[in-house]
Amino acid sequence: MDPAGPQHEATDQMIAKAGAEGVPTCFSRLAAHGPPCAFGTSGLCCRVCNLGPCRITRQRPRGVCGADADTIVARNLLRQVAAGSAAHCDHARHMVELLRDLAAGRAEGYRIEDPAALRRAGRLYGLETERKPDLALAGELADVWLAEFTAQDRPMRSLALAPPARRERWRAAGLSAAGIDRTIVEALHRTVMGVDHDYRHLLAHTLRTALADGYGGSAIATMAGDILFGTPRPVESVANLGVLHADRVNVVVHGHNPAVSEKIAQAAGSPEIAALARAAGAAGVNLVGICCTGHEVLHRHGIALAGGVLQQELAIVTGAVEMMITDVQCCMPGLAQAAAGYHTELVTTSDIARTEGFTPEPFDGRDDDGHARRLLARAVSHFRRREAARVAIPSQRAPVLAGFSVQAIRGLLGGSLRPLVERLADGRIRGVAAIIGCSNPKVASDRYAAELVRGLISRDVLVANTGCAAAASAREGLLSPALAVPQAGPGLRQLHEQYALPPVLHLGSCVNNARFLELGAALAAELDGRADLGDLPLVATAPEWISEKVPAIGCYLVASGVDVILGQDLQTTGSPNVEAFLSRHARELLGAGVHVCLDPAGALGRAMELLDSRRARRAARVSPTAGRPTSSALRAP
Ligand code: NFS
Ligand code: SF4
Question: Which atom number of ligand 1 is nearest to the Cα of residue 290?
């Protein structure tokens, strides 16, 4: 299988098919929209009150209330980060509630899939883990986690997932986030008209809010998912639109909540559903994933990945999808227009997500197994309505090896991260780069991510992939060791030869970026007890961003000491002060900053520079950053 260009053809073919059949997609709507509003892209549009909305220009440098560009841009960024963090954190809340209900005997059909993950998490929070039954421990842990949402005047306990040196920095800078709910509510309060106007003070709360996401929402969602559904282990599968089957009932799970997709996955494997499909004239039921929920079932069941956020409508355009089962986040409302052109039924399983054209089928923890079976039976009944003449499934599918939890990585390396730490120290491996975030049709989709990943592995940088960026790598064959290893440098090839650790590690969904924080903390601990993420050759890149979740992730990575390279500007270009804060001041204070590199060659150069200088600083045993905080700008009141 050729890992290069042709994999894009699947997407291109379906865009062309949609065009020929008059089916609108985000690609056609983007073209119709033309260039976006410059006030919006620069962050200079304020609509937080009805004195405005106000748009800042050189002639009108202040809004009606007197707010300047710095205030408005910082306020908009904080609102974005609060919304992105809220998405991850509310997802986490649903997982913790499920764990609590399970412990109380109220979540029929669910169980503790991974008791070792439960005990691991219990120990992290100082719970007594050895002398009690799983469900009792699960109940205690769920209570500890729920208290992370409601904590008022103490920092989140989950911040202790970071190395002690990093926590000390947060304390000194006043960035230790209180409870998740309080932190996010405060973000909205501060950004109401007439409250917080100092851009530095607003940006400090932006970082604080992001930390509530990274160490709160995202980490808790990841740990709870592992407990309930299993910690991922390496698993083989395939990816790209070619995973749909012409002769089977195709069902797509799409969204982010692993609980729903898990139940669908279990039901799809049942003989009862297979028999129904055969009776309907199909060869069986083919379950595939889109977006982060797709990564969840890929990692735990090896279920094929049809694509990321940009393939959601295109999967329907194949004409071969009987049902798409969505939950929360990244499920475009435009799916309804795409599905209207075919026989596809759209289902929403979340009580908080309703879209016209989607059938509401909320999963509520009571008889979710039965619910999943009934949905699949209905999907089977749609098979007869498929118009054979309009079915065109692209042939492209690439082999994938997924399932790289930190535990799986450690397992492959012989039980300890030492082999990786040693190679990072002597330069055989030049660093670890997280390549994360969405795919965006505004840029030459996926090419940035693919070129960057190839460049990094050829220079012996281990790549950790999540979310849609991982789906992009999957399409390029970069998640197949057989295809990726020959493109890697000698250090990574040797690592693969000795330990079977491939050059590109698929860490999971977008909330699983917490696995990158976990990996960083574990590498730091392995290096020496006082080390910090800022001391390690780590970097992160979000080549293409769409969702507000990406600015949130970027901010918690920077706050953790990991430099972040964005392939597209944040909506902050209207304030040079805000941009200087995020790039330079953050570096003084936290040892890392935000960089923007619009082309992949630039991003590759910057990533190598950052990684090499981190390794050189470490080797010279010089402080990895500009040292103690030099300014009180980030200090909490
Ligand atoms: Ni994360 Fe991007 Fe969405 Fe997942 Fe994909 S669009 S912000 S990667 S699916 S969340
Ligand atoms: Fe305009 Fe100020 Fe109201 Fe924003 S808060 S809309 S800048 S008056």
Answer: 9
Q: Which ligand is nearest to the CA of 513?
A: 1
Alpha helix ranges (H) inside 383-488: 406-412, 418-426, 447-458, 467-475, 481-484
For the Cβ of 550 lying below 6 angstroms from any atom of ligand 1, the answer is: yes
Ligand 1 atom nearest 295 alpha carbon: 4
pLDDT band at 296 (very low <50, low <70, confident <90, very high): very high
CB of 290 within 6 A of ligand 1: the answer is no
Atom 10 of ligand 1, residue of closest alpha carbon: 510
Spell out the domain ranges in the chain: 57-229, 241-390, 398-626
**Which bound ligand lies closest to the C-alpha atom of 435?**
1
Measured distance CA(48)–CA(86) in Å, rounded = 19
Residue 161 near residue 518, CB atoms below 8 Å: yes
pLDDT level of residue 628 (50, 70, 90 thresholds): very low
Pick the CATH number of 241-390 from 3.40.50.2030, 3.40.50.150, 2.60.40.10, 3.40.640.10: 3.40.50.2030
Residue 54 Cβ contacting ligand 2 at under 6 Å: yes
Nearest ligand by distance to the CA of 66? 2
Would the CATH topology of 241-390 be identical to that of 398-626?
Answer: yes
Confidence at 623, pLDDT banded by 50, 70, 90: very low
Q: Report yes or no: 329 and 549 within 8 Å, Cβ to Cβ.
A: yes
Options 3.40.718.10, 3.40.50.2030, 3.40.720.10, 2.120.10.30; which CATH number does 398-626 get? 3.40.50.2030
Distances (CA, A) of 410 to 138, 441, 520: 25, 36, 13
pLDDT at 280 over 90: yes
> Does the Cβ of 46 fall within 6 Å of ligand 2?
yes
Q: Is 472 in the pocket of ligand 1 (CB under 6 A)?
A: no
Q: Has residue 633 got a pLDDT over 70?
A: no
Angle at 325 between CA 267 and CA 286, to 5 degrees: 50
Measured by CA distance, the residue closest to atom 1 of ligand 1 is: 510
Cα angle 551-553-557, degrees, rounded to a multiple of 5: 115
Residue 199 Cα, ligand 2 centroid: separation in angstroms?
15
Q: What is the mean pLDDT of residues 506-534?
A: 95
Which protein residue's CA is at the shortest distance from atom 7 of ligand 2?
63
Q: Are 265 and 301 in contact (CB under 8 A)?
A: yes
- Cβ atoms of 328 and 401 within 8 Å: the answer is no
Asked if 108 contacts 75 with a C-beta cutoff of 8 angstroms, the reply is no
For ligand 2, atom 3: residue with the closest CA: 49
Report how far residue 432's alpha carbon sits from residue 450's, in angstroms, rounded to the nearest whole number.
16
pLDDT band at 47 (very low <50, low <70, confident <90, very high): very high
* High-pLDDT (> 70) share of the chain, %: 96
Classify domain 57-229 at the CATH topology level.
Substrate Binding Domain Of Dnak; Chain:A; Domain 2 (1.20.1270)
